[in-house]
Write a structure and sequence with these properties.
By secondary structure, the protein is an alpha/beta fold. It has 2 domains: 306 residues, TIM Barrel (Alpha-Beta Barrel), CATH 3.20.20; 125 residues, Jelly Rolls, CATH 2.60.120. An 8-stranded parallel barrel has the order 1-2-3-4-5-6-9-10, surrounded by 5 helices. Strand 4, helix 7 and strand 5 form a beta-alpha-beta unit. It starts with 7 loop residues before the first helix and ends in an 11-residue tail after the last strand. Keywords: Apoplast, Glycoprotein, Glycosidase, Hydrolase, Secreted, Signal.
Length: 494
């Protein structure tokens, strides 16, 4: 049996081996660190894909375009529908100008006139002089969208002021369901279907079979997102101004909502931290005062559109921006120019991240895969997670960016914070501090997919710390960014 080596050389070798073993064990522990449990509910893959779109487009076009109205009577003659130069590809130019990846068409509005040759009514493009009665706006729309790589959505109004079956519960619900079948089986994949409860005060009493409709939609298109006040996948934000609540949860309790019922707007606007259903909000707003084109209206100015962006995308929503084609069947050139200006402004603001090159540290880290540095990698699928033990502290969490000395003097006036919502929405309160200042430069409640804070004036600083409070599990941040908005008051220049 050999004796133990007592030489300094043996001792050094043993120390090196121990160090290697310790380092290997540590690296292995970091590499195999498990993710935290999700906080339920969480989004489906389709909901998550929708949330990351951020801006999508609405196209209101139909009989109201030719009668200069918002809500038609249902008595308009089909002959009134006669766009001389309809070009759905030009509509996609408008969508591309806004940076949209999904386009939603109003296939039938409240007047009941159908933009496709439905087999279930004579009140459609088939009875119009357009394309000699052989036209199909839905077909041209969906073909043009797919040619541009855009996904398709469809709105089919439940309220129908033309059809004689309206008011006869079974007959009308069967009629509506038959038209859903036409639209969801005849035009390829549909990513979003839009339902609403809009109805005039003196409208005929009518019970809609929403649950039957929803289940049929899901049967026909399994990966579709269904929009209504009640979801089940996407909800109305409670207004048509493009503005979510300053507190905005993606969660609600669907059992508290009746589609079309008055008094639910505030609940829809803010969501519910105790909600059992993941139904994120969509902010619908028109680029013009009206939803349909009117000769005497013009597009909202750029500052107003940017305000809409901050109050929708910047508050955990997707912005559904309407661009109504005119009586010729084209989106006005001035509207496309405004959409292009809007997109250029968003790119100018967020195309440069003034946090780039920063070092990140946090109150704690769960492990290598969940390091604080993940908030700077530009990816939605990586995130910082605090150590599990920190949840017991109760004093909140923090993450801090230390900017390079060469960048510390570059001012910013927008702070961007993003949660990894694939694991649930968690942050209930947050504050932002610069260079250890005693007063927060920004504060708020929820974060969600994206929270954007515009500061009162541009600030410079070496360190930016975000403090977070959450009782729904440790906060999981996928991004923290700093930007300069040159369009804000006192924003300076790029």
């Amino acid at each position: 049996m050999m004796g133990r080596c007592a030489s300094p050389r043996c001792a050094l070798a043993a120390a090196l081996i121990a160090a290697v073993v310790a380092a290997t064990s540590s690296s292995l522990a970091e590499a195999t660190a498990t993710p935290p449990l999700p906080v339920l509910p969480v989004p489906t893959a389709a909901q998550l894909r929708w949330q990351r779109r951020e801006v999508i487009m609405f196209f209101h076009f139909g009989m109201n375009t030719f009668t200069d109205s918002e809500w038609g009577t249902g008595r308009e003659p089909p002959a009134a529908f006669r766009p001389a130069a309809l070009d759905a590809s030009q509509w996609m130019d408008a969508a591309a100008a806004a940076g949209a990846s999904l386009v939603v068409l109003v296939a039938k509005h409240h007047d009941g006139f159908c933009l496709w040759p439905s087999a279930h009514t004579a009140h459609s493009v088939r009875a119009s002089p357009w394309r000699g009665g052989r036209g199909d706006v839905v077909r041209e729309f969906t073909d043009a969208a797919r040619a541009r790589g855009l996904d398709v959505g469809i709105y089919l109004s439940p309220w129908d002021r033309h059809d004689k079956r309206y008011g006869r519960e079974v007959a009308y619900n069967e009629y509506y369901l038959a038209q859903l079948h036409e639209l969801l089986t005849g035009y390829g994949s549909v990513s979003e279907i839009w339902f609403d409860g809009a109805k005039g005060k003196n409208a005929t009493n009518m019970t809609y079979h929403f649950q039957e409709w929803f289940q049929t939609v899901r049967q026909l298109q399994s990966s579709i997102n269904i929009f209504s006040d009640d979801g089940p996948d996407l909800r109305w934000v409670g207004d048509e101004n493009g503005s979510a609540g300053s507190t905005c949860w993606s969660t609600i309790n669907r059992s508290k909502i009746t589609i079309g019922e008055a008094g639910i707007e505030k609940y829809l606007n803010t969501g519910d931290p105790r909600g059992k259903d993941w139904v994120p909000p969509e902010c619908d707003v028109s680029i013009r005062p009206g939803w349909f084109w009117h000769k005497n209206e013009t597009a909202k100015p750029l500052p107003e559109l940017l305000e809409v962006y901050y109050n929708s995308v910047g508050r955990n929503c997707v912005l559904l921006l309407n661009a109504p084609p005119n009586t010729t069947g084209l989106v006005d050139a001035a509207d496309i120019a405004r959409l292009r200006e809007f997109r250029a402004a968003v790119t100018a603001i967020f195309g440069t991240d003034l946090a780039a090159g920063s070092a990140a540290r946090a109150s704690s880290e769960r492990g290598g895969r969940f390091a604080a540095a993940n908030v700077l990698d530009g990816r939605d699928d990586t995130y910082w997670a605090p150590a599990a033990a920190e949840a017991e502290d109760g004093g909140g969490y923090w993450i801090e960016l230390r900017r390079p000395a060469s960048a510390a003097a570059r001012k910013f006036n927008v702070v961007r914070i993003q949660e990894n919502v694939a694991m649930g929405q968690r942050v209930e309160r947050h504050e932002v501090y610069v260079d250890g200042g005693g007063a927060a430069v920004a504060s708020g409640t929820t974060v969600g997919h994206k929270r954007l804070h515009r500061l009162g004036a541009p600030v410079a600083g070496r360190t930016v710390r975000v403090w977070l409070a959450s009782r729904r599990g440790p906060p999981l941040l996928s991004a923290v960014g700093l930007h300069l908005d040159p369009f804000a008051a006192g924003g300076g220049t790029m």
